[in-house]
Amino acid sequence: MIIRKAVITDLPRLADLFFQLGYPNTVTDLEQRWDEFNSRDANCWVAANDEGIIGVVTQNYVLPMNTTAQYAVITAFVVDETIRRSGAGTALIRCAEQEAVARGCSHTELSSSMRRPLAHLFYEHYGFTEVPKRYVREYFARARADHRTPE
Fold it and tell me: Which residues are in the N-acetyltransferase domain (predicted)?
């Protein structure tokens, strides 16, 4: 297995993986965001084996005005549901963590749905700590997995 930066030809597989995570994106959706995402302070890595891409993690970096150090935010993280517990998730998180540390980030944050208790166990095993209370005000309805299917 290797971890590498994602390239535009990976987008069909990323659409499949994001769908598994509950975010329905078509390849066209991802293509439309590709250049903008890559122009930001962000990374997208994939885990691949001999059969193809089996996981993805995206990470953005935030430098708030009120603190002296930036921090990392994992905005998407998924390993194909048919191959979980293969080490791909740990390898992806380790890659994201190494980049955050190299950039001098004070910490890494991520959000995880309450309906993913196995993911919560993974994060805790890796060393993440649950920090309760997060408030969100939505301006547009988020895409839901039951409304669209991948291309």
Answer: 1-151
Report the C-alpha gap between 130 and 54 in whole angstroms.
Answer: 26
Q: What domain range is 19 assigned to?
A: 2-126
**Element (DSSP H or E) covering residue 62:** strand 52-62
What pLDDT shows up at residue 147? 44
- Supply 58's token pair: 């995206």
What does each C-alpha distance from 13 to 119, 120, 123 come to in angstroms?
Answer: 21, 24, 24
Q: Is residue 122 part of a domain?
A: yes
Side chain identity at residue 29, one-letter code: D
C-alpha to C-alpha distance for 61 and 72, rounded to whole angstroms: 5
Q: Looking at the 3D structure of the chain, how many domains does it have?
A: 1
Q: What is the pTM of this model?
A: 0.83
Angle between helix axes 117-126 and 88-102 (nearest 10 degrees) is 50
Any domain includes 149: no
Is residue 23 within 8 A of residue 68, CB to CB? The reply is no
Position 111 pLDDT exceeds 70: yes
